[in-house]
Queue: 2 jobs
Job 1
Amino acid sequence: MKRVLLIWRKSLNIVMLTLTGVAAFAVVSVLFLILGYLIFNGWRSLNWDFFTQLPKPVGEAGGGMANAIVGSLKLLFLAAILGLPIGLIGGVYLAEFGGKTFAFITRYTADLLNGVPSIVIGIFAYALFVLPVKHFSAFSGGVALAIMVIPITLRSTEEFLRAVPNSLREGAMALGASKWKTIATVILPAARGGIITGMLLALARVAGETAPLLFTAFGNRFWSPGWSQPIASLPRMIYDYAIAPYDDWHRQAWAAGLVLLGLVLIANIGTRLVLSRGGGGRSA
Amino acid sequence: MSSTATTIEQAVPPKAGPRAFAKRLRDGDEIAHLITLLFAASILLITSLLVYELWVNSKQSRAAFGWGFFTKVVWDPISGDFGAAPFIYGTLVTAVVSLAIALPLGLAAAIFLAELAPRQLSDGIAFLIDLLAAVPSVIYGLLGIFIVVPLMRTTVGPLLIHTVGNVPGIGKFFKGPNYGVGFLTAGVVLAIMIVPFIISVSREVLLTVPREQREAALGLGATRWEATWKVVVPWARTGIMGSVFLALARALGETMAVTMVIGNDPKIAASLFAPGYTIAAVIANEFSEATGDLYLAALIELGLVLFLMTFILNGLARILIVATERGGGHPS
């Protein structure tokens, strides 16, 4: 009886452990198969026109997404100049000045804001900047992305500032530096690599966002001068082209998907490699 | 959590009184404090403004439909009659389906990575999985349209209909016409998207379980599996729950990928093969074309509902994860 039980337990052990291995293998291989498919299809469809031409009118084959690439860059630029400073300085507060209760509430709110579905952020930016002027604009899209950048930057900045050893703070203060001088000249430079990494990851994250742009930046099949016109973006183009019934558009959607994926992955891999080498901790 | 902060306070002797304050003011510390405080407080401002805008702009819809909004099945923009039930149903069903697929797979994979795989292999795979979590959702939607939908229509769908469809009880969920798009397809695509999340967070939580717990179980004669399943996993339970809630919140709020594969039809159907609609998808599709204030207000009220759902889930998730990290003796 006891022996039977032992055999049962041992076989259960082997079966279940094998199953976990199979699950890990299955998940990883499925995920990479589909990405491989994207790279295969995207690479086949990618050509020089994609980067240099405007979209062709419906029905005409060819054309590219030059305006969407520039549009995405413009939106990211807005997100960066509006969102990054707020996140950075707020992060300094949380790590260096923050009291107990207020810092806790801020941190918690930032995490919650980070979890708000991006489509809801889109509604918010719409209500703030589109509704009053009654037209879509690049600016409102940039604001929507900036709102998503802020909590990510805030938390990563805080994390990297906390990773700076206290001996540096104590050393600077012992030399008579005031607190803000300590932060500006010693602490921030020490955490610089990590903070910049966090910012890049935040931008990489919003670079692929489509939902908040649907009714803020909207979309555009032409160049969009200035900041107050509807503007094209790469993710939005992928969406439009993928659900359209034209084969040529599907081909371009794959190409755009590959370009977008390439940008996001390069930013992620690059920053993570720098981080792991610098040993400046890890952002979640 | 605030261990660093307390040491700084100890390093700088607490100064009280107006003279000390004047010195800090002269040094610029008080000004720096105030400025950074304002920037940090902007997070609170943005979040409250977000809630305020959603609330104010959905006023017309709330006034017109009241609580009935949540139970009404009609969505008729032409006659101006709006109900949220089909969208809430679709959102919940797709999230539950995705979790039913992703949780067992993700947890098993996390157990393998945390407990069995050599550390280097585990770290390498975790790195790749983290990259997958960074892939934009519109790309998952693209893959969903061109891989998952055809697969569902030609292979998986018919297979399920002919096997599980005949099982009494649960059979009714797997019956009916199969178009390729629908609740199940959306659930599968969502599962692909949230699996990296579940693996990543669960693995980290499992790794925080003290070694002694495993050693004690193994020392008492438990097999490796028993030590894992009866000691390590229960120890990490709250953290794993946290990861599940985070994943669920993400699945609920996911827009693009779902919009592209769910079929966009505001109906409540028992069959998982039926096309449906989710809150996020209807906002994405109809918001910029909404004519009339009531239509727009109804969509914004849907946004408010979605916001509250994810807000509550995320709140719970954070509490659970913080609780595990504290319970595991790991200050964050």
Note: Residues 1-5 of chain B have pLDDT under 50 and may be disordered.
Job 2
Amino acid sequence: MAWAVFLILSFLCIGSVVAMILSRNQAHSALFLVLSFSSLGGLFGLLDAPFAAAVQVLVYAGAIMVLFLFAIMMFNLRGELPARAKKLRLALTAGLGIVLLAELLLAGRKLVLGNPGAAQTAGGDTARLGHLLFSDYIYAFEITSLLILAALVGALALAGKKEGA
Amino acid sequence: MIPSSAFFVLAAVLFVLGVVAFFVKKDLLTQFMAVEVMLNAGNLAFLALAKALGKADGQAIVLFVITVAAAEAVIGLAIIVLVFRQRKTIQTDDLKDLKG
């Protein structure tokens, strides 16, 4: 049962990223990415991380991708689709992808091979996560609020100006 | 029970797809989306490790990664909007003033 869910979600995730690469329309790309991130949220749930799954769907598939869609609507680039990528560029990219994948799997082969079954201890207790956030990671948590404030002010300073100013 | 190795392989494939998308696509917005895919692959690996080790630390890190990604998306999109206002294009092929 778990395997079926895993396979469906991972195919959905990878398939929609591939569709995002193949799509020539930016809005379609963004929507494929929403699908990909939602199924990734399901995978997070499969990993006993219900809070991360909820945050993934709310923040990533919800907030961040809506931001992207707003940006796409602002640019309104309908009609001028980019020309097909050059053959050399595609070949180089494919080579890079294959080498990188081989390298990642080679580097992580101890993890991949040496971990036949996941440990049974549930790491996904949300109460435990909350305790951890407000004890061990309290400085990081507070600094995060500063980061968000900086991002807010920065975005206003960058894009909030009037056209002529 | 799904072994965590399956999740690692999926994370690696997803990361590589993000890299490929970054190099194949030629407009700033889609390249930016590819960066988000790579960040998510990292998150998946963190969560798989958190489960394999039975610790919640990985989940805490994932929360921080998502927060930083949100901040990064806001600033990045603001910069792309600025570029579009000044140059009327976000195609990377048109933005090569620094090329010698």
Note: Chain B has one domain: 4-90.
